[in-house]
Design a protein that fits this description.
The strands form six sheets. Strands 6-5-14-13-15-16-17-18-19 form a nine-stranded mixed β-sheet, with helices on both faces. A seven-stranded mixed β-sheet has the order 10-9-7-8-11-12-22. Strands 20, 21, 23, 24 and 25 form a five-stranded antiparallel β-sheet that branches. It has 541 residues and is α/β, with parallel strands linked by helices. Helices cover 29% and strands 27% of the residues.
Length: 541
Amino acid sequence: MGTERRWSGGLIDQYSSSRVSSRTTCGTFFILRTTVPDELNLFQYFLGQRIDEGRGDRRALLTDEGALTYREVAALSARYANLLHDAGVRPEERVMIALPDGADYVGALFGIVRLGAVVVMVNPHLKTDQIRSFYDYTRARVALVGVEVLPEFTAGLENAHHRPQLIGIGSEGHGERLAALPDEYPVFPSHKDDAAIWLFSGGTTGQAKAVVQSHASFVNTTELYGQGLLEMGPDDVTLSVPKLFFGYATGSNLFFPFSVGATSALFPERCTPETLFAKIASFRPTILVNVPTMVNHLVSHPDVHEQDLSCIRLATSAGEALPAELHRRWNDLCRAPLLDGLGTAEMWHIFVSNRPDDVRPGTLGKAVPGFDLKACHEDGSEVAPNEIGYLWVRGDSLAKGYWQREEKTRQAFRGEWYVSGDMISIDADGYVTYCGRGDDMLKVGGKWLSPAELEDCLLEHDAVDAVAVVGVATEHGLIKPRAFVIAAHGIVLDDALAAELQEWARHRLEPYKYPRDVIFVDDLPRTHLGKVDRGALARRT
């Protein structure tokens, strides 16, 4: 791989090596752009090269069943490539993965790209109608499905226009049949611009769209963010709250550690605070890949101070806005810096983040070196510092577009820029504050209200465990903020508490920002990626 480096904005040198494994910062230099050869396959970059480097016997995966080396993972991927070849899958065709986190997921993913096919990652716990929709939309030739959800995926075939071949993974006899397949398979000579993985946008306000990402995109962010900003090295052990079908976890808990010969710790069960504490005690991760909801669960858990978190050197947060109050509570709990960041499927992964040595709670930090950001009006002109605008980002992880969504593609992909629906402000020093989705932002009394700002304020109240704010129309058609609140354990829910929370916000924010209604709920609806489904909340009466 080659890498351009800039000094004070001017190109000064370029070097080439088999891969970039150094930090993205070196004195006053920073890496602006990774360059890759035309022939590029993710299997070779993330897995094959570790074996070529003589690191095949290093521990690659860590699970409750034991550890697998890089050589063993490569052999497993070859068996999956042979399995899919025998099932009739050809290069460039799509293969769906609906599996729990574990060795089979990793072997299947690398087997698909090794074959030259395209990975389609979906949540294995989809509902039947969602499964049917994904069948018809992706037109995958084969779906690799965990045996525990195979009945639901089989039911999804009914009335589907496209019916992929289902292969149950973990079913009786599957392990023996897989083990009998050859542990070698040629690596397809993919082009760097070929489709490698389909990711899906969050779908917080509508149907999820398939984002077509190339082999080169994954290499770019791995080197700029994973190896660069996170400074991931071969002695790291990663552990993730989100599952591998979520692009954030695919990077932070698989691709990034594999790129440097480190170890990914995986577990299949749903992540609860108790489960996470147990996995930390068992796997002793150095990097914890987290999300705000779980940060809240951890810092609020009655047993948290009895846990040994000393192994963690770094934690990340993404997927949703991390309120400053939660960030402060994490800092009171754990010495490891918590790096809030923002990424999108359209840019694959994180492109703006706090740094280990520069963390500002309540902000997203600065653009990851190699990416450019700006906040713009609807017409594309930049807003002034500290003003709210739509996020524009460019970099070499830009997707090809949305599958079968040409109009949406033209709206979002404008030349080398991706125009996000997220709204941000950027101060004079380059620090970015997340303000919410554009379709979540509320115009109240002619002024912008960021739901995240009100949510952060309410979270500071001891009675609030979690909260989501949406806009609802009054009988006169005016938009007013409504807060859906999950109360802390043991709190009495009544009109007096609702009024107290309204006054709490009124006295801490500008008066127009207080919630006109406070609705107490037991849970918040989630999308297929686990984000708060604000569209569903807005439809509640």
